[in-house]
Design goal:
This protein is mainly α. The protein contains 6 helices and no strands. Helix 2 packs antiparallel against helix 3 and helix 3 packs antiparallel against helix 4.
Length: about 90
């Protein structure tokens, strides 16, 4: 993000907020992304089945957000990488 937009953020939430400020993310996408970070943090520190089920139900929403082709194009990423070693892509 620094090379493309000049954004220098040091945390996942900081990156998301910066993406919203530069209009890379719409407001509702930024809110969803912040919820995704919160859910990620809960999975690391919580051993509660109800929380796990709630997070599991949100995964399709998070997948759609992460597979946003408009964002990828703006960042200059030609295709989303999944199930590949990043060294093979670079």
């Amino acid at each position: 993000m620094y090379d493309v937009e000049g954004v220098d953020a040091g945390s996942p939430k900081g990156v998301i907020r910066s993406c919203r400020e530069i209009h890379l993310l719409k407001d509702e996408d930024a809110v969803l992304a912040l919820e995704m970070v919160n859910d990620r943090n809960l999975t690391v520190h919580t051993y509660n089945e109800e929380v796990a089920i709630k997070i599991y139900k949100n995964l399709p929403l998070y997948n759609n957000l992460l597979d946003n082709k408009q964002i990828m194009e703006r960042l200059g990423i030609k295709k989303c990488v999944s199930n590949q070693n990043l060294d093979e892509v670079v």
